[in-house]
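### Sample
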Amino acid sequence: MIRCAKKTIPRGKTKHYRVFWSKHLEELKRKRDALRNTADQTGRTDDVQARRRPISLTSVLAKLMERMVNRRLTCFLDTNNILRSGQAGLRPQRSTNQQVATFSQHIKDALDARNTLTAVFVDFKSAYDLVWKEKLILKLAKIGIKHNMLNWVKAFIGQRSCKVRYENALSKSNLLQTGLPQGAVTSCTLFNVFINDTVELVQTVTGIKGLLDADDLVLWYSASKKNARERTESALNCALKLLANLIPPLGKTLRRGQKAPKLRKTLRRGRKVP
């Protein structure tokens, strides 16, 4: 839309964006309501309905502002090497294939050394919806984000509301206490900052290694065959406890599952991996 407009329009909007950027963005606090459509017209199950997310409704000009901010934030993170190499999700020029190749190499190395390797795959349920906003702001300030950028993020994620639509009915607006807006341009980058220290924390447990792809985490432990099961269970349980305490809202989803990792398969040379 802006590309097709006259040259005077983008210049005017640039000035408008500069005011937003430098004046603490009071207008940005008037959030567009996120909308959750619960109408079931496709015969979906209740489980699928429960996983539906409210989608952030923003204008084209607001999304353009988000892209400009996100580019600055991404450049700052990459220039200062803030994001850990163990995270490949939601990042440019990184992919799941890189994590699969790295994990596969560790499996091969364990087999060559005639060790056992046990892995636990963790998927945070509703990860975006459970992001602790205050903790995110503290993490941004800790890595050096301040002044206009920090004020913009505070205004962007704070005081957001949500409505539910069912057929032609629309509910009242409710304030969202946690979570990042679904469909927003900057949400992916902010989520990476929020979950950035996860792998570093679990690797404080001796022998534990891990990789992240967005909100999907794999932890593994390689050990010699002697007393391998006991040492593996102890190390992985310790890592999962640290993980549950790291991010309280996300940790709740871990506690709903089993307390101990289920050791179904142990990789050894000569056995086929299902």
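The radius of gyration is 22 Å. This sample (Reverse transcriptase domain-containing protein) is used throughout the tutorial notebook.
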